[in-house]
Amino acid sequence: MNKAVESKHINFSNQVVEKRIEQLLENMSLAQKIGQMTQAERLFCSPEQARKFHIGSILSGGGSCPGDNQLADWVQMADEYWHASTSKDERHLGIPIIYGVDAIHGNNNVLGATVFPHNIGLGAARNPELMQKLASATAREVLAAGVDWTFAPTLAVAQSNRWGRMYESYSQDPVLVANYAAPFVDGLQSSYDDDGVISCVKHWVGDGGTTKGIDQGETTLSYQDLERVHMLPYYPALEAGAMTVMVSFNSWNGDKCHGHRFLLQQELKGRLAFSGFVVSDFDGIDYLSQDYYEAVALGVNAGIDMFMVPEEWQRFIEYLTQHVEIGSVSMSRIDDAVRRILRVKAASGLLDQVKPSARAWSNHSSFGGEKHRQLAKNAVAQSLVLLKNDNSILPIKKQNRVLVCGKNADNIGHQCGGFTIAWQGVSGNEDIAGGTSILNGLVGFHEQVTYVEQDRVEQIEPNDFDVAVAVIGETPYAEGLGDIRTNENDIVEAGSQIRGLMKVLEPYGTSTKLSELHPEDLRLLRSLSDKNIPIVAVLISGRPLQIDLELDLTDAFVAAWLPGSEGQGVAEVLLGKLDFVGKLPFDWPRDSAENSERGLNARFPIGYGLNYR
Ligand code: GLC
Predict the structure, then answer these.
(1) pLDDT in tens, 472-505
(2) Which of 43, 102, 214, 306 to mutate to test the pocket of ligand 1 (most atoms within 8 A of CB)?
(3) Is residue 336 located within the same domain as residue 379?
């Protein structure tokens, strides 16, 4: 067993905070304590209910947005929950709720926000300093909405491109992920002052290592490998003072993380001396038992402190109250959980904050503003990886007559991917106010650009163009809906349902070959190739895919990942205003690979990337 990690945490507590917590705790009823341990979804818990049941946290699940999803609607909603939760009386102590969202690539929920590249592209940039800046900008745009807490950064070390959440992982290399963890946490929390939000490192532990990449599946590893690959990035994150940790849906060697006392108590809270609070994932305790009453006790006794029980929050409160009354959950366990929650609320300043609408960053003009968009464009430019550039077809020359085509050329929603406005992302340009598509970017910088719809490319006159830019690839997905499963038996073979249920969602596809996932792209490239027009392919995707057929038809091939709202950043590099700097954060499989798990017979290895020099 590892020696205890030297606890060099930035301790976000002190004697004043601890004394205050104890004073609060000794005056709390059981109902108030259990209320603090409960996180409900905004659609299922009104501000009045939050007050009546002393709820500790409210969240917006993906796409759960107030009003017209304008910034002001969010701030108004935050005010309503703040007023309700802080209004004291003889029943209610007035402890403010903490509002949480998935702001995982900017404040991606709100219309008009700056949407940064997803983590897979940031991993290609190999730039930890950039992470701090992106996180700080994200914090400001979260604060602009009156929100206190983001469920980020994801510290997954993804091992398979079949996983629908690979794009949320910076890299297959735990050291790269670890190098990003502390700067991102620090950028988000900004030393807990008014410019920061509370971070949530996730998902503890082994989310990126499931067999066959099945989301929420089974991670079968020795403790040594689990620690070396999947725990490693948490060490710098916790040392940087990350205040919350989210438990993972996956199981480790057959036991669900949500019920894993060793991983939560001995490892996270013991060996790593984590003093913040552990939050469950979305109904994550459901998979501990088919009897919800039993699942509640299993989750609490394993060491979870706050429970993301979006709809079932009243049943959760009722059952946990019964468990404490009969002694199947101890009061000391309840007090440990509440102490941790109050510690985060006190140390982050939330206990003393003014109402959201009166805070410095609420409704701030920097939200979606030029400064953040410029930062996003820089991040996009640094994320691109040049896989091929025959005859130096790139950069596009000033005199080139450029044909632009492909389903992702003028679709900012597709550029952004999942967790953007809606849980599963959006399509088109309307919902991503203020952004630019790749086409917009090319038109903005280059004289001779012609966009042709995919179904009209057949009719073009080849002599009218010097080069074609074909923007191809995936359409948005999130979580299990992004999984690639060759057959439904994969789930059983992978042991994902060992001793616990799992959510089985419709997979994105049954092959990691682009030509099978999106045959329209190969058809497009073939029709361009038949016309002898030099082709630059730009792949929008949440992961490396097998692209041998497509690659052979092109003169240049760019991995653009999921660049976010600022497609202009792609155009600037294609036009040579900036050079490529990106390096692959994952192995890129060749078609002949037995399977597309990492490292086997890679077409391009991790670290690969060309440039113009
Ligand atoms: C989801 C995800 C988690 C997210 C949470 C809240 O199921 O697993 O990453 O933070 O629910 O939306």
Answers:
(1) 999 999 999 999 999 888 887 777 766 556 677 8
(2) 102
(3) no
Q: What is the pTM of this model?
A: 0.96
pLDDT in the model for residue 597: 52
pLDDT at 191: 74
Minimal CA–CA distance to 181: which of 207, 152, 219? 152
Per residue in 194-241, pLDDT (tens digit) is: 889 999 999 999 999 999 999 999 999 999 999 999 999 999 999 999
Give the active site residue among 141, 281, 286, 483: 281
Q: Where are the beta strands (DSSP E) in 14-150?
A: 38-41, 57-59, 98-101, 149-150
Report how far residue 273's alpha carbon sits from residue 265's, in angstroms, rounded to the nearest whole number.
10
Residue ranges with strand state E in 363-448: 385-389, 402-405
Token digits of residue 43: 């659609």
What confidence score (pLDDT) does residue 2 get?
40
Give me the CATH number covering residue 423.
3.40.50.1700
Q: Are 268 and 311 in contact (CB under 8 A)?
A: no
Domain CATH for 162: 3.20.20.300
352 and 379 share one domain: no
How far is 66 from 200, CA to CA, in rounded Å?
23
What tokens were used for 17?
């905070």
Catalytic residue at 530? no
Is residue 133 domain-shared with residue 169, that is, in the same domain?
yes
Which of 358, 393, 428 terminates a domain? The answer is: 358
The domain of 572 spans 370-604
Task: Report yes or no: 161 and 596 within 8 Å, Cβ to Cβ.
Answer: yes
Contact call for residues 256 and 221 (beta carbons, < 8 A): no
Residue 89 catalytic? no
CA distances from 470 to 352, 524, 527 (A): 53, 8, 11
- Let me know whether 458 and 569 are in one domain: yes
pLDDT of residue 194: 80
Domain boundary among 329, 358, 387: 358
Q: Are 309 and 40 in contact (CB under 8 A)?
A: yes
Q: In the structure, which protein residues have their CB atom closer than 6 angstroms to any atom of ligand 1?
A: 61-62, 102, 151, 202, 281-282
pLDDT < 70 stretches in the chain: 1-11, 497-502, 593-600
In terms of domains, do 346 and 422 share one?
Answer: no
